[in-house]
Amino acid sequence: MSDKQLTVDERHEPSDCAETPKVETQAEGFQAVRDAHRSEIAEDYVELIQELIERSGEARPVDIAERMGVRQPTVAKNLARLQKEGLIRRERYRSIFPTDAGRALAEICRERHQIVVAFLLSLGLDRETAEQDADGIEHHVSDQTLAAFKRAMGES
């Protein structure tokens, strides 16, 4: 048999691979990712709503659609979900306002984003790349990892 004709068993020797996580641990990891994906949209919306209010005094669906790069019906669907979850309040044909829970979530998201951006900048990435990467990482990074990022940057 030539070097290129390995059997399936030979190609997947345990010593050739990193240690395989326990089934329970792996399942917990996949569940955490699914949970993070479900909360990403809510987090992005409340963070953007809070930012729009701080910058211009209001958050309108048309502005949200433009900033998110989506169409108005998508915004309407997501705003209805956020309202149902108690993260925003709105009145027909008026601006959107975060509830106390929505403001708290927006602040948590903003802090996570800032930590991730600062860490990526400390690694030498340019600001644009750090901001773009942080937009995805911030939803999936654990509190332990955020704390490690802060320690690595010399923060407590």
CATH architecture, by name, is Orthogonal Bundle
Can you tell me the number of structural domains? 1
**Beta-strand percentage range:** under 5%
Tertiary shape:
globular
Tell me, what is the CATH class?
Answer: Mainly Alpha
Number of strands: 2
Number of helices: 7
What are its keywords?
156 residues, mainly alpha, Arc Repressor Mutant, subunit A, two-stranded antiparallel ribbon, 2 strands, 66% helix, disordered N terminus
Q: How would you sum up this structure, described in words?
A:
- The structure is a single chain.
- The chain has a single domain, classed as Arc Repressor Mutant, subunit A, CATH 1.10.10.10.
- A hairpin with a 5-residue loop joins β1 and β2.
- It is mainly α.
- It has seven helices and two strands, in the order ααααββααα.
- 19% of the residues are buried.
- The chain has helices spanning 8-11, 23-56, 61-68, 72-84, 100-122, 127-137, 143-152; strands spanning 88-90, 96-98.
- The protein is 66% helix and 4% strand.
